[in-house]
Specification:
Radius of gyration: 25 Å
Strand content: under 5%
Structural class: mainly alpha
Order of helices and strands: HHHHHHHHHEEH
Largest sheet: 2 strands, antiparallel
Length: about 300
């Protein structure tokens, strides 16, 4: 079946218009933050549906779950995919990309950004918005106040870095800690599927320990060291950007060059608070699991007692 030249020209015209729309609007620097956030939200919807479809076909225990547990199961599927995506992008920008390399002396690391780095952060913002919406809609089945606070602060901080282009390096450093999320979700999946006493569950716990050690402790030591080494550069550019001055002097104090240990100590305190919050989240999950196991054990004992009573 031959196609007329007019039809071919019409198709090419629509194709060129679509490419122009994507280039001039969807992927334009000024529209990337909004495009990426929308893409992140839509991706969450797609992943939710795919998780539901795949789980119903390949996991027998999924069909026996309650509606609330199936929603949480699919929600954790979204969380896992986001964690893999943002952790991979963060590792790339922090350790492999030359965007934040020290060999670039044009501008301080705290004010460097690119279209790709902004897009990656926008997808993460879209995830936090979608997940926070689910938490609030189904509150408190998917999480209590600590989850709302965690997602709200994460969304605001990542969104600020995305829109302003500031501090993206350190934002990616913090987001590397998302490598522990898939293991924590796997722990919940195995427990919900009745595999708490399996060797896979034990192996996953070992992986959680080492991943937490590297991504939640050692990584922050590296980040604080990086902040210490580049702090004077960041502050000098900060005052130059916002006040048009290289430094501001007060009697006996040079504000443009504050002591780095003060900033380092502040960062350590912030990391300790963040670490405590993350541990609280994991501990609450663990407490909930133990309560479920205790309740299950009590039901079994009660059944045995009733059986013995009937026999007597």
């Amino acid at each position: 079946m031959s196609i007329s030249s007019m039809t071919v020209m019409t198709i090419k015209s629509y194709k060129n218009q679509a490419q122009g729309l994507v280039k001039d609007y969807l992927l334009a620097d000024s529209f990337i933050p909004y495009t990426s956030v929308i893409a992140g939200i839509l991706a969450c919807k797609v992943i939710y549906d795919l998780t539901d479809r795949i789980s119903s076909l390949h996991f027998k225990s999924y069909s026996g779950l309650t509606k609330a547990l199936r929603i949480e199961w699919n929600n954790r599927g979204i969380s896992t995919v986001h964690a893999v995506f943002i952790a991979a992008m963060s590792l790339y920008f922090v350790f492999w990309s030359d965007l934040f390399g020290d060999d670039r002396t044009t501008e301080p690391v705290t004010f460097r950004s690119s279209a790709l780095s902004t897009f990656a952060l926008g997808v993460s913002v879209g995830y936090f918005i979608a997940d926070l919406s689910m938490i609030l809609w189904l509150y408190p089945s998917l999480g209590g106040r600590e989850y709302v606070l965690h997602h709200s602060l994460s969304c605001i901080s990542v969104a600020y870095s995305m829109f302003s282009g500031e501090g993206q390096l350190y934002t990616f450093m913090v987001l590397i800690s998302e490598v522990t999320t898939p293991e924590i979700n796997m722990r919940w999946f195995l427990d919900t599927a009745g595999l708490k006493r399996s060797s896979t569950y034990i192996l996953n716990g070992i992986v959680i320990f080492f991943a937490w050690l590297v991504a939640r402790i050692l990584l922050f030591v590296y980040m604080f060291d990086h902040v210490y080494l580049h702090y004077h550069q960041s502050m000098r550019n900060l005052f130059h950007k916002y006040y048009g001055l290289e430094h501001v002097k007060y009697p006996g104090i040079t504000v443009g060059y504050p002591t780095a240990p003060v900033r380092l100590l502040s960062g350590v305190c912030g990391a300790v608070r963040t670490g405590r919050h993350e541990l609280d989240v994991v501990w609450e999950d663990n407490q909930g699991t133990e309560e479920d196991l205790d309740e299950e054990a009590m039901m079994k004992e009660r059944s045995k007692f009733l059986l013995i009573s009937r026999c007597m």
